[in-house]
Design brief:
It contains nine helices and two strands. By secondary structure, the chain is an all-alpha fold. α1 packs parallel to α8.
Length: about 210
């Protein structure tokens, strides 16, 4: 792969990564609810899922999954159900609060419970794995930049590392955007509103995934 080809691939990978899909929305809401650090920890699960998908594509299994109608439908409905489940869980999540001397008595201090890093990562991993279009993208996108003059495996490795680096940058950006929102969440009531918004968006994403066609 020439340097010019790699630059084009990097730009295209960034454009794909920055689209506001379920994982990016989850990173933003994690940043808003728990902070940028939590969003970054959660993103590790997404990167692991995409690394696995890239490996599947590189071995040729991605072509099998991409052409299998049954595999597409099973993954699609499993992913949609999981997103709806997360949305309902987020919508209904309880908000612990307590009065402090530093806060207006009319408003409660928010004591949002931060999930364990492993739980955040697992959610992002399952969300990414439940999106069959990701495998379709890798199967259709990566081969466009392969050249016969260079090692197939090395080119795939370079593209895989580059794509994951773009994803890491994007998930941090979404987490930072969410972190800005966190500064405005100063009461239990605000956090409940944020939970309803993020839960509703995740349920909507699940419905859109269920309605998606190949």
């Amino acid at each position: 792969m020439s340097f010019d080809t790699w630059l084009v691939f990097m730009g295209a990978a960034f454009a794909l990564s920055i689209a506001p899909g379920p994982n990016n929305l989850m990173a933003m809401f994690n940043g808003a609810r728990y902070g940028v650090g939590a969003s970054a920890f959660g993103g590790i699960g997404r990167l692991l899922a995409f690394a696995l998908m890239i490996a599947i594509t590189a071995t040729g299994l991605g072509v099998v999954l991409a052409t299998s109608e049954l595999a597409f439908v099973v993954i699609k409905w499993a992913g949609a159900a999981y997103l709806v489940y997360l949305g309902i869980k987020t919508w209904r999540s309880t908000v612990a609060s307590a009065n402090t001397d530093d806060v207006d008595p009319a408003e409660d201090a928010v004591l949002g419970r931060r999930p364990r890093a492993i739980d955040l990562a697992r959610r992002e991993f399952l969300t990414a794995m439940g999106n069959p279009k990701a495998i379709l993208i890798f199967t259709a996108f990566f081969p466009q930049f392969l050249t016969a003059q260079h090692s197939y495996g090395l080119q795939f490795a370079i593209m895989g590392v580059t794509f994951l680096a773009m994803e890491a940058c994007v998930l941090m950006a979404y987490g930072l955007v969410g972190g800005q929102v966190k500064g405005f969440v100063r009461s239990a009531r605000h956090l409940r509103i944020l939970n309803r918004v993020s839960g509703g968006v995740l349920m909507g994403a699940g419905a859109m995934l269920a309605a998606a066609r190949r």
